[in-house]
Amino acid sequence: MKIILKGLLLLIFCPVYAAGVHEYELDNGLKLLIKEDHRAPVVVSQVWYKVGASYEHDGITGVSHVLEHMMFKGTEEYPDGEFSRIIAENGGRENAFTGDDYTAYFQTLEASRLPISFRLEADRMRNLTLSEEEFKKEVQVVMEERRMRTEDKPGSYTYEAAMATAFQTSPYRQPIIGWMADLEAMEIGDLERWYQRWYAPNNAAVVVVGDVDPDRVLSMAKEHFGDLRPETVEAPPHRPEVEQQGIKRVTVKRSAEVAELFMIWKTPVLKTALADGSGTEEWEPYALEVLAGILSGGGSARFARELIRGREVAASANARYGLYDRLDSAFLVNGTPAQGRSAAELEAAIREQIAALQESPVTREELDRVKAQVISSDVYEKDSVFYQAMVLGRLETVGLPWRLADEYVERIDAVTPEQIRQVAEKYFNDDGLTVAELVPLPRDNALPRPQSTQGGAGHVH
After folding, report:
1. Are 161 and 170 in contact (CB under 8 A)?
2. How confident is the model at residue 20 (pLDDT cuts 50, 70, 90)?
3. What's the CA gap between 372 and 87, in Å, rounded?
4. CB 28 within 8 A of CB 230
5. % of residues, the chain, pLDDT over 70
6. φ, ψ for residue 5 (rounded to 5)?
7. How many angstroms separate the Cα of 442 from the Cα of each of 153, 445, 446?
8. How do 248-255 and 433-441 pair as beta strands?
9. What is the pLDDT of residues 288-328, one digit of tens each?
10. Which stretches of 30-147 are DSSP H helices?
């Protein structure tokens, strides 16, 4: 609870206790989530910033990921290399990742070393040294990372083209690593503005899970993060996806051993389903999650049973859906045709599987299988303190109540066969479909890969 008194912010610490999670907010806006897990003398500390590729605009794509790299280049107090050296010296492990909707930094340490993590993270939250020389080196590292992960991987390159085709106005059309032309044109000033705008306590959440005492963690957080100044943080302009009015197709010709197919349908996510006037029922994202399991959740799922082993039209086939994105997203099906079969045959076979879901409810046996997988996976993942922190951080950062993590199994268990049929009928139609095909070229006829104007190599954090 916050009280405004004579223009000053006075914070009364009112922890929220649910599912073992303690929630606090410091008076500079920093959110703190703490979950006790005393099974081992270990702690995971994660700092999540509400910024990622979906916050970027044309011309600076990849800036969030480049800044993630630069966050390891030091401050005045802890110069380049000191952060990693200190964590390693204390027996810890550390890294970072950038997503569409967030950038996160984490350490795993022996529980008594948590103050070290807080001290280092608080320092680089506001005091990062952005050197022109180091920036030029690191942007080359990112360009080489793009070459290795996208340019030289035909499937990844085709997926990137598929997403850029499927989404016309949504920022999800942009690759997290950025377009090569934007990386080549990026300047140190772009990073300085991005860092100043988004890397502030009132745009961050610190998540701590492990063998800790919440009161002591709160005291540490106030000591290390409490004096950091907040920024005026304005959300990026809302860029909803325009309504698609017909099937989109894209063909990518690339040096590759086999063809590959991607089918992308526009779908809502949990956050947009919860919004007033969305036209989406709250249960629909959970039904889409179960539907993905019906299609490709293990060896007994429909794709494996019907397409790979049965008709032998696919060498591989998978379905993927994520209900925890910040903006409306997509349901993805991708696969590789079996030897002697074409991408067109695979597409037709996938369409038949989708039509079957639209025409009749799934069997109770199939539904029970998927639900059992979800429950066992949830139990297994809660054995990991890192995963527990990941779930809390992601929900908090995309703007969902972290309490939803404890509702997941119950919501999945409540999904009915008829609800699965309804979402299949509602969302899996050609008006919202994008199909991308990788056409393999023999190496002698391969198109040259896009090159940057400069070389570069290095490691990736």
Report:
1. no
2. confident
3. 39
4. yes
5. 92
6. -130, 110
7. 15, 5, 6
8. parallel
9. 999 999 999 989 999 999 999 999 999 999 999 999 999 99
10. 63-70, 82-89, 114-126, 132-146
Q: What angle do CA 240, 244, 248 make, to 5 degrees?
A: 125
**Cross-strand pairs, 103:** 49, 98
Do the beta carbons of residue 232 and residue 426 sit within 8 Å?
no
Which stretches of 159-271 are assigned E, i.e. beta strand? 204-210, 248-255, 260-267
Report how many helices (DSSP H) and strands (DSSP E) the chain contains, helices first: 16, 14
Known catalytic membership, residue 425: no
Matching residue, tokens 């919860």: 274
Distance CA 26, CA 204 (A): 11
DSSP state string for 144-177 = HHHIIIIIT-HHHHHHHHHHHHH-SSSGGGS-TT
What is the pTM (predicted TM-score) of this model? 0.90
CA distance 348 to 333: 13
Q: Between the CA of residue 265 and those of 28, 321, 428, what are the distances in Å?
A: 41, 10, 6
Question: Which residues have CB under 8 Å from 270's CB, separation 6+?
Answer: 282, 285, 286, 323, 324, 400, 404
Q: Taking a C-beta distance cutoff of 8 angstroms, is the pair 200, 79 a contact?
A: no
Pick the closest to residue 209 from 332, 381, 76, 70 (CA basis): 381
Helix axes 417-427, 343-359, angle to 10 degrees: 130
Q: What pLDDT is attached to residue 381? A: 80
Query: Is 71 buried (19+), middle (13-18) or exposed (0-12) by CB count in 10 A?
Result: buried
Exposed, middle or buried by CB within 10 Å (0-12, 13-18, 19+), for 63? buried
User: Looking at this protein, which amino acid is placed at residue 36?
Assistant: E
CA–CA separation, 106 and 386 (whole Å): 9
Q: What is the pLDDT of residues 237-251, one digit of tens each?
A: 888 899 999 999 999
- Whether the Cβ atoms of residue 47 and residue 230 lie closer than 8 Å to each other: no
Among residues 256, 67, 95, 252, the alpha carbon closest in space to that of 161 is found at 252
DSSP classification of residue 75: B
What gap in Å lies between CA 298 and CA 369, rounded to an integer? Answer: 10
Tokens of residue 358, six digits: 């639209």
Instruction: Give the active site residue among 23, 25, 68, 121.
Output: 68
CA distance 299 to 389: 30
Tell me the pairing of strands 31-36 and 204-210. Answer: parallel
